[in-house]
Design goal:
By secondary structure, this protein is an all-alpha fold. The protein is about 75% helix and about 0% strand. The relative contact order is 0.24.
């Protein structure tokens, strides 16, 4: 089995989490920030049984067909959510295609992304995890530029003045919606070197830092127009002008495209790994089939950022099933 480091695991997962933040729709306020952080802490606590399971030598991949299918379906549906997010966000970041609201334009974008994902997935988890570190480092530098611009040129009153009508619980549920890397986390945690608990803490700590950096800088830059902004993180990148001769829009477009490819690529790679266990005789076109189903399922989602359905689904894959497997192991002894 290929082994990856905690840095490589964290990079793969944070790229997906960053991409979903890019595509986040709705207002962001201080309540939103608190809700997102509370959601991440809850997700970490939910993951503790999973960490215990891996530490005892168990895994999702060896947990039986039914559970494998549950995780497989979850990953497929989240892949569809990612494609849906990509289609909706492409309208405001100006990915050019004819008739931006048409089905053929969406399929064209999905097809191009799928081709790149097929190549990336064919190289295996080791290669894609190494590339993810480079992509995440590049994205972090770009994010740092936006943050510095926000700190130097923004109105700090935006932090308190920008408000939403949503409650803290609603913001926590919306925070679960931007946690697209959790399904891949469940699968790939077992591929990591070292202590599983330390690797988990490392990932969720990075997720908290990343979420704080993006949401606070978004409020500082776009707080004044938050009520009329559908994609606040994209808007904040467009408003950031750290250099007098060039806006950051073009750089953000590159990062957005790269993160979209990696997000869907990692999701499809995790799905293909599970499909290999579920149908071992299905050796060819595994990733192609997975991507085709993800694209098809994307039409089922409206792309909205709220709903307690996401808390329930994450709770099942991150907490309920690992607890069940731990109890099963203890009874078998």
């Amino acid at each position: 089995m290929d082994k990856i480091t905690k840095n490589q695991l964290t990079a793969m997962l944070l790229i997906t989490d960053t991409f979903t933040l890019f595509c986040f729709r709705g207002q962001i306020s201080l309540t939103t920030v608190i809700g997102f952080i509370c959601g991440i802490v809850i997700q970490f606590l939910m993951s503790l049984p999973l960490v215990k399971l891996y530490s005892m030598g168990g895994s999702v991949e060896s947990s039986g067909k039914i559970i494998q299918i549950i995780y497989f379906v979850y990953l497929l549906l989240w892949g569809g959510v990612l494609f849906s997010m990509l289609w909706k966000a492409s309208d405001v970041i100006y990915i050019p295609y004819e008739n931006s609201n048409g089905i053929w334009g969406k399929l064209l974008i999905a097809g191009m992304i799928a081709i790149v994902c097929l190549y990336a997935s064919s190289t295996g988890i080791k290669a894609i995890s190494r590339s993810a570190v480079i992509a995440m480092a590049t994205g972090a530098i770009s994010l740092l530029i936006v943050i510095v611009s926000a700190l130097l040129s923004s109105d700090w009153n935006n932090i308190l003045d920008t408000k939403t009508a949503d409650s803290l619980m609603t913001e926590i549920s919306r925070g679960f919606f931007i946690s697209g890397g959790l399904g891949s986390f469940v699968v790939f945690l077992g591929f990591t070197k070292g202590n599983y608990m330390k690797n988990t803490i490392y990932y969720f700590s990075g997720k908290i830092i990343l979420t704080l950096a993006i949401t606070i800088s978004t409020i500082l830059l776009a707080g004044g127009i938050m009520e009329i902004t559908e994609f606040p993180v994209v808007t904040s990148a467009q408003l950031s002008q750290p250099f007098p001769v060039q806006r950051i829009d073009s750089l953000f477009l590159i990062i957005f495209a790269v993160f979209a490819v990696f997000s869907i690529g990692v999701q499809s790679l995790a799905s293909a790994e599970l499909l290999k266990k579920i149908l071992p005789k299905f050796r060819y076109l595994r990733t192609t089939s997975v991507l085709a189903v993800m694209i098809g399922s994307a039409f089922l989602f409206s792309g909205r950022n709220n709903g307690y359905l996401y808390i329930i689904s994450v709770g099942i894959i991150l907490f309920v099933i690992p607890c069940f497997l731990l109890v099963k192991r203890s009874l078998a002894k």
